[in-house]
Give the backbone structure.
Amino acid sequence: MNWERMHALIVKEFIQVMRDRITLAIILFMPLAQLLIFGFAINTDIKHLHTAVFDQSRSQESREMINSFTYSNYFDVVLYANSVKEVDEAVESGKAKVGVIFPPDYASRIKGGRQTSVQVIIDATDNLSASSALAAAQTIGMLKSQEILAEKFSRLGIRLPGQAIDMRIRLWYNPDFITSWYIVPGIMGLLLTLTLISMMSMAIVRESEQGTLEQLLVTPMKVWELLLSKIIPYIIVGYVQVFIALVVGIFVFNMPFLGSLTLFYFLTFFYVVANLSLGIMISCFAQNQTQAMQMSVFIILPCVLLSGFVFPLEAMPAGFRYLGECFPITYYISLTRQIILKGGGMEHVWEDTLALIAYIAVMFTASVLMFKKRFVP
């Protein structure tokens, strides 16, 4: 082996790596991003769940029980409802993950030495959040019962059968905690992100490498017309993928589809276009197909971990939660679970839809401007 020749080749490779600034940035930044996301954002102990409370008792005893919920840090009361219907609507719309309802005779039954009950409604479309809420509610009920028995009834010689407070927990939408029902809607969004972003970005870069893109740009065609013509075929590809995923989810995993199929397909259009716009933006920075693929893969990590696909957004620090809101998959997963598992209508998903439309407007406009800057002479 000629060590001088080897030394020259090694130096040459290092120089090539250092010159490829985009690849070098990905190599250096990806491990850091993974450490930060896995270290701070991933948390299976779900706390601070949005909770709606309907207190029909309005007594000191019921307020003490509400304080037990909030002091546990597992529940954050965001709504004091005036009816059971209002609690139901809060859980159905996703504004609350948990609903707590106190009966009118809650305090009188405790004072009279009789067992009372508290109804707890839990949105089980998110398995981790529902499991955490279920365990926390049961523990709070048990501890509060022990406290009541110890402080009030033992010295009076009163003995209640079982617990003083019966926590009547109702799991909505996925009472058996079937993981596939929770995962399949998220996988649909992830598949579209994986394929559409990478395919769109590499398609434009490939044409640039082959020289055909310059030939198209010298024609009277406008830039936005060129980009739109490249987007439309991939929109059809996206719908084919969604159709296959739905068929597998419904007929293989027995996933229910409770909402409007028309509304679902209509809103999917905005998500598909949002991903394709992001793919165009990547192509404006990538110098070759390898870089386009690397940048596309780099986006997958935060999409998986920060979108609510596996780990609930409630468990993440605020900074990572806001970062997750920068990706369209976050809104798509939310609206798909709302439509598929809850049967929600447009009144429940309009905010997510508006976010996707705003994302398209900003990203597509920015992509056209960046495309002109780089490719148009």
